[in-house]
Amino acid sequence: MDVTYQHYINGEWVPSDHDDTIDVINPATEEVISTIPSGTKEETERAVAAADEAFDSWAATPVADRAVYLMKIADKLEEKKDHFIKTLTEENGKTMDTSNAELTVAIDYFRYMAGWARKYEGEILESDRPNENIMVFKKPIGVVGGIIPWNFPVFILARKVAPALLTGCTIVIKPGQATPNTAGEFAKLIHELDLPKGVFNIVHGKGSTVGNTLASHPKMGMISMTGSFNAGSAVMEAAAKGITKVNLELGGKAPAIVSKHADVDLAVGNVYASRTINNGQACTNAERVYVHEDVAEEFTRKITEKMKNAKVGNSMNEQNIDVGPLVNQDQIDSVSAMVDNAVKAGAKVETGGSRKESDKGFFYQPTVLTAVKQDMEIIQEEIFGPVLPIMTYKNFDDAIKMANDTVFGLSSSIFSENIHEIMRAANELKFGETFVNRENFEAIQGFHAGRKQSGLGGADGKHGLEEHLETHVVYMQYKNDIN
């Protein structure tokens, strides 16, 4: 693919009014595969104006009719699924299997949210006064700004778009600048439908310009962003100028506790998946492991073997790839520096520990580190690569304490066959999610939300849908003496 994408505003393809562009790089080959415009403040404001103009009519459209559009989008995505899988793999470096899974969930997400059309509801409350009803209406919050990260550019686009459109909101999307191609292809898909103009818009570019303009714009009802803590903090600061609602999913540093009562093979398989799925670039997946000393040798030996045998390569032209490249040069530099710092501080490399020898591509070897300490950067900061630091513990109190010792609070997991340990973890781990004896991937009918510096608000399910609604209370007086 070698494509030049344009903004999509008010149902039209909009060429940039300047020559400032951004090259999109295939992380497996380091070749330029597309070009996007670096959106300006004025272009972003134009998209917001289009979404604002379309809002009243879209909000007045019966919700069942809005749901039909979501079903049409799902059908179109399914029809073009193979194309999107290839586009996603090329721009992001995912394996083809991971891209296929992401598309499958995205399609399901639109259909799932469409199913809420006749289910979300307001309330009628008892009044303290005679001849009065108190009615609580749930109404769309307005124009939504959806800021998409580079690691799951199709699924998180669906996560932003589907509930917004279903509830009657209009939306302006800013794709991740490293992986904008799937969003550009999604805009083409939308253009083939009869979705009213202005309901869905895309502005490509940098977060510092496009994202900041969206967050600070007085016409925005909500900014929904998935990304890093620093980016989320900047969005929240910009949104504060207009007291605009923010919905933020930020970084994570998910702990996994492997108890002496664990099924070790089950734990090994699931933790391995955490560090290799999406090439280790998933904020919910286990980034640090606390293993009871009684099973530490077995767990470490088995997972080191699996990581050592993981096949690294370009899934576009090789079969049975387990781990692809990291997304760009910055990411591989960051992962390399974190591992090097850990080794300098005393960590031991059990396998991996460096870039894969390759002529091209941002490939990093799956890595296991032992002899790490709780205060090391590799334990405290998000890695976002196929790297696993392992610590041991003696008693369960210590495991819980170390797991909670982080500024993040997105995801966590425990592997144990002991119900008492599981219940303690469920009650004492300070995270938005805890996964028990399974991989760290949330269900679309659940609620995906973080605590502490991992964000505000959440997504998925009933509660994620309601993030896009605001409450309007009507006090209705009536008379008894009707003639």
From TrEMBL:
The keyword Oxidoreductase applies. It comes from the Bacteria. GO terms for molecular function: aldehyde dehydrogenase [NAD(P)+] activity; identical protein binding. InterPro entries: Ald_DH/histidinol_DH, Ald_DH_C, Ald_DH_CS_GLU, Ald_DH_N, Aldehyde_DH_dom. The active site is at E249. Pathway: Carbohydrate degradation. Belongs to the aldehyde dehydrogenase family. One of its GO terms (biological process) is carbohydrate catabolic process. It comes from Sinobaca qinghaiensis. Keywords: Oxidoreductase. This is Lactaldehyde dehydrogenase/glycolaldehyde dehydrogenase. Residues 13-474 form the Aldehyde dehydrogenase domain. Pfam families: Aldedh. Gene3D superfamilies: Aldehyde Dehydrogenase, Chain A, domain 1 (3.40.605.10), Aldehyde Dehydrogenase, Chain A, domain 2 (3.40.309.10).
